[in-house]
């Protein structure tokens, strides 16, 4: 039958060592890829836009309630246009009121 000469234990240890070496190689490869990507992007802005941020921006812009009448919606469009022309900042020096 099977002899208890330690071959199973040796094979088991060998398998564990191979798995550890493979993990180390994979981690090293991942680090190199990250470094290469960061090296290529140096001096550039980081892209932090995610889908959630894009959705939030889309919701905040162009939100005109449907229950407003024609004059009110035209007024809101004009206000938005004026705000865009003046840089969109609401406070600080040089801020002019949108409506007199």
TrEMBL record:
Organism: Rhizophlyctis rosea
Name of protein: Uncharacterized protein
Basic and acidic residues bias locations: 15-39, 49-69
Highest taxon of source: Eukaryota
Region of interest (Disordered), ranges: 1-69, 81-100
């Amino acid at each position: 039958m099977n002899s208890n000469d330690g071959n199973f234990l040796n094979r088991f240890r060998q398998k564990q060592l191979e798995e550890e070496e493979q993990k180390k190689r994979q981690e090293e490869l991942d680090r190199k890829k990250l470094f290469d990507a960061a090296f290529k992007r140096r001096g550039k802005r980081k892209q932090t836009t995610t889908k959630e941020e894009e959705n939030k921006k889309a919701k905040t812009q162009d939100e005109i309630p449907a229950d407003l009448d024609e004059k009110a919606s035209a007024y809101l469009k004009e206000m938005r246009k004026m705000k865009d022309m003046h840089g969109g900042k609401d406070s600080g020096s040089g801020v002019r009121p949108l409506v007199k």
